[in-house]
């Protein structure tokens, strides 16, 4: 008995959907932010995820991650169920936050070097003023 290519593809889709449903059920089958519950737009999201982490970081697409969560080989609390809208919004917010942090780090470096330069100038001129004052 052999199975056709279509049957095989169908089996793959059913397998992936079953894994996805099982994982979504672990997280209440609804979006953690807005409560949206249509499974077609629900995704498993890494709570502290780097927005630049490649989507295939776990291999085999999302199914690889679903299997890891179901097996308990990754901590369940590191993930949450989000709808695509909330996931995109979260991604946009974390990119803004990431850029803001990077900018403020740069600003601190600039401020520190400016403060140092002012401090050195102050010592230089301060000493001259002091000498001037004595004369
Ligand atoms: Zn949502």
Write the layout of secondary structure elements.
Blueprint: H1 5-26, E1 42-46, H2 61-71, E2 79-83, H3 84-134
Antiparallel strand pairs: 1-2
Helix pairs in contact: 1-2
Bound molecules: zinc ion (ZN).
Residues 31, 33-34, 36, 82-83, 85-86 line the site of zinc ion.
Walk me through the structure.
By secondary structure, the chain is mainly alpha-helical. It has a domain of 92 residues. Helix content is 62%, strand content 7%. It has three helices and two strands, in the order H-E-H-E-H. It has a two-stranded antiparallel ribbon. Helix 1 packs across helix 2. The longest helix has 51 residues. The model has no long low-confidence stretch (mean pLDDT 83). It binds zinc ion. Zinc ion binds next to strand 2 and helix 3. Zinc ion (ZN) binds next to strand 2 and helix 3.
Quick tags:
two-stranded antiparallel ribbon, binds zinc ion, mainly alpha, 135 residues, elongated
Separation of the first and last Cα atoms: 109 Å
Give, in order, the helices and strands.
Answer: HEHEH
Task: Please compute the radius of gyration using only Cα atoms.
Answer: 27 Å
Rounded average pLDDT: 83
Strand fraction equals 5-15%
Uncertain residue ranges: none
Strand arrangement within the widest β-sheet reads 1-2
**Residues in helix, %:** 55-70%
Shape: elongated
Q: Figure out the total of helices.
A: 3
Enumerate the distinct ligands.
zinc ion
Which structural class best describes the helix and strand composition?
mainly alpha
